[in-house]
């Protein structure tokens, strides 16, 4: 009986842990172009570990596309390019 009760409690919590980043956004935090221009926006998580930039722009209004890869419960690594081809890198933060 104890084993059954443990499984009933454990199985739903495992499925939540596997996908609790899917569908979440992280806010860009310290993301800059290779020439030092600040980038704002967010990243939408398509999976538990991978997402794509959403509504990301430089300070001057240049569109930024790219990806983010989660490396902890709070942060993901961001890489991408501006519409003019400048490289973008930094982090995004999960609230």
Task: Kindly describe this structure.
- This protein is an alpha+beta fold and 95 residues long.
- The chain has one domain.
- Helix content is 19%, strand content 52%.
- It is built from one helix and six strands.
- It has one helix at 2-19; strands at 25-33, 38-45, 50-58, 63-70, 75-82, 87-93.
- It has a six-stranded antiparallel β-barrel with strand order 1-2-3-4-5-6.
Q: What topology, given as strand order, has the largest sheet?
A: 1-2-3-4-5-6
Q: What is the averaged pLDDT score?
A: 88
Distance between the termini: 39 Å
- Low-pLDDT stretches are 4-16
The value of Rg in angstroms is: 17 Å
| Helicity, as a percent range | 10-25%
Protein structure class: alpha+beta
Assess the beta-strand content as a share of residues: over 45%
Biggest sheet record: 6 strands, antiparallel, barrel
Give the count of structural domains. 1
| H-E string | HEEEEEE
Q: What is the strand tally?
A: 6
| Apparent shape | elongated
Number of discrete helical segments: 1
Brief characterization of the structure:
The chain is of the alpha+beta class.
Key phrases:
95 residues; alpha+beta; 52% strand; elongated
Q: What is the element layout, followed by pairings?
A:
Blueprint: H1 2-19, E1 25-33, E2 38-45, E3 50-58, E4 63-70, E5 75-82, E6 87-93
Antiparallel strand pairs: 1-2, 1-6, 2-3, 3-4, 4-5, 5-6
